Amino acid sequence: MKKIFICSPYRGNVRKNVRAARSYCRKAALLGFIPIAPHLLFTQFLDDCVESERNLGIEAGIALMKTCESVWVFGEPSQGMLTEIALAAICGIPVLSGKKMLRDCGVGV
Which domain holds residue 7? Predict the structure, then answer.
């Protein structure tokens, strides 16, 4: 199974964004991928409103991203997402449209 990094918004409308990220992960998993979504994982025990904890979550997420085969981007990129996208490019990790990837696999978003 290939690990993919799910890059989608978290801040703003957190409830809506979490629901969307969970849906992306579910669809990717059902297609046989291992979705890695640090913004769903680390916010379970780190406080995104505490800068040091947010930074710890981002750092851990980047470490996980480096183990993935590709980064799937969903939605309008936030500042945090832009950082992840730039780092993926620097690391040579393909950055793909998540919506297009799901559509190409026969799944709608």
Answer: 3-104
Residue type, 67: T
User: What are the beta bridge partners of residue 71?
Assistant: 5, 95
The two three-digit tokens of residue 96, written as one number: 């793909």
Q: Report residue 88 as tokens.
A: 């993926």
| Residue from 34, 78, 75, 30 nearest 54 by CA | 78
User: Sign of torsion, CA 34 29 46 76?
Assistant: positive
Give the containing element (helix H, strand E) for 30.
helix 14-30
pLDDT one-digit tens code per residue, 16-64: 999 999 999 999 999 999 999 999 999 999 999 999 999 999 999 999 9
What CATH number is attached to the domain comprising 46? 3.40.50.450
